[in-house]
What does this fold into?
Amino acid sequence: MGGVEHEDPPSKRVKVSSEESESFSNSSSLREPARCSLSDSMARPLESRGDDEVVGVKGVVKKVELVRIIAEALYSLGYEKTGAHLEEESGIPLHSAVVNLFMQQIIDGKWDESVATIHKIGLMDENIVKLASFVILEQKFFELLDGEKVMDALKTLRTEIAPLGVHTNRLHELSSLIVSPSQTAIDGTSDQRLRIRSRKKLLEELKTLLPSTVMIPEKRLVRLVEQALDLQRDACRFHNSLVEEMSLLTDHQCGRDHIPSQTLQILEEHSNEVWFLQFSHNGEYLASSSSDCLVIIWEVKVDGRISLKHRLSGHQKPVSYISWSPDDHQLLTCGVEEAVRRWDTASGECLHIYEKSGLGLINCAWAPDGRRIFCGVTDKSICMWDLEGKEVECWKGQKSIRISDLGISSDGKQLITVCKETMISLFGWESNSEKFIEEDHTIISFALSKDNRFLLVSLSNQELHLWSIDGSVILVAKYRGHKRSRLVVRSCFGGLEQAFIASGSEDSQVYIWHRVSGELILTLPGHSGAVNCVSWNPANPHMLASASDDRTIRIWGINQVNMTQNGRHSNGVCYCNGAT
Amino acid sequence: MDVDPRQWENIDVNDKDIHNIVLSYLVHNCFKDTMESFVSCAGIEQPADHLEDMEKRKRIFHSALDGDALKAIELTEEFTPDLLENNKDLHFDLLSLHFAKLICLRKCTEALGFAQLKLTPFGTMQKYVEKIEDFMSLLAYEEPEKSPMFHLLSLEYRQRVADNLNREILAHANLPRYSAAERLIQQATVVRQSLNQEFGKDGNQLFSLKDFLER
It folds into this structure.
């Protein structure tokens, strides 16, 4: 309650209605029993003070309720005098006199009287009265036990609590407590339920039990404000930064400037079209691959600059797909219809080459435990290997066609591949069960969300379809705007809580949509060739990378004040041998 | 599947076997006088002198059945000193009988004191905690017979505890825990039911001893 010690009875708040304001005195809590007769008439709260008066433009906010929650807020914040003044001036009491009496009795520990008072507060059904009485008498019981008045406690239990007929299990627990009040659980931790809570806490619990018209819930106004902020945040289409920014003074509306939209770096290490790139799970590295058969591991520095760490050469064919291990210590790369190589991130060394004689591999993925890998093969089957290269299993049949996307579902139990031109299979590789996503157009590529619960499918009709795959398979949204007709163009999720969808496009731009509303919010020009792939840094919602046929990678970020003049920072020159 | 009753004719039953069955039943249930009378009528040998023990066992059994648990415990301790020591479950059950009795007599203060002294020490073991709670909950009611835990005050419960005690004492003296008659009935029932399950197409009623005997 905003700094008020729980020992002090909140004396100033418990007071008579405004009708008594003449005799309003600063000191005290209710003492004269004579008030009780008045309190009877006050048992029906708040009649004739213009109960129906409304405030606000929409006419839905009742004045009486508003004033009451403001008064509660004032008391919560510790402004006793102001709260009292408000009640007086507005003529609207926070609580009726009966309720005030009740609250005072609780604080004073006058249990029997408070139980009697509860019955006098109208508007409540039998059951609530019983539940509230139970809670009050339970407190009485504990205080008696604490004061070593065991027989009195027993008497209370038998004659007052048991007859209520509610909470039978708790009743039995209380019985046991009489016998062994210091009973501790087997593992030695002392039992929570034994500690007497303060009377203040009791009052708080009663507030949740009794209807809110009788007793205003604690901090109601603050809760309403929090709800409003939540709604504002949900409605904000550009929301990409953390919540500290929210102010009560204006409606929350992020501007575009929180979405990466400025080119911060251009990376020019590749000598041919850059086909694929992906940030590591921890956002500290970026891996890119190109039709020049090279894979590059880049390091994301603390200040956001990207620098080259390793050049991984070895593939004889263009590298079309990369997969980071779950712990980011290793990398799988796939040469088109060639082999899959496993690399160590720290040293850049090639740890293993996976091949199938006579056949080529077309995609690769890690099992969630990081100890096995899956690869799609040109004969449309999928193989699972352990790290040493021993083939553990092979699923034949039309499992994976010549499209280099392979994913694992969130529970690690389903392999996601494109099994036919217009169909994605979610294949339970242990259970051998299969679910399908059917589309009307040819599937070009897909991407999984970070939590692996959503699938973003790119189609030949230039649409992106968002599917929920957690449990049953449902189409959730569609995104349009980008251009794709000849090439494989990839998309991804990104931003704070994956609130955005980004995609490459054949018109050399990066497209960004708001995921929930489906609205296209940004297009980013800059590349001079088709943008093949995008990846949003999972650890930094303000960093986006794009890979293009113009042989460069662009790093996009938010508008920074001290950017260099032309926004370019050429990276390849200083680090020619991959040292960081 | 029903066994053809005529098949029974092919089985010879020895009188001696039947005597033993009856005898075992009488010994198990401490029917000392009946046993003596039966032995002399049937002209068989008196079994090795368990007579005195039977008498003691009978008193223990009846004390427990009447709810006079403290007496039962005292007699048991006298008769077989280590039995309760080694059989905590039984010990607890007997003590709880006494508690139940105090509750029935509405002697709440005494019951509370007794519980604190005798029952709570068992609370260190998890398996007793729930039982203790169940019994303690009787304290909360002015009319415990109408409470959800009323079965703890019932004759059936006392019967069960007394039976257990009896069996343990027998076991301690290296005598069978179950009388022969009990075992035979159990065996016949189990066999019958198991056959029913295996060949179980027709009607499949569970074996009913009563029906069987009335045939």
Summary: The longest helix of chain B spans residues 180-198.
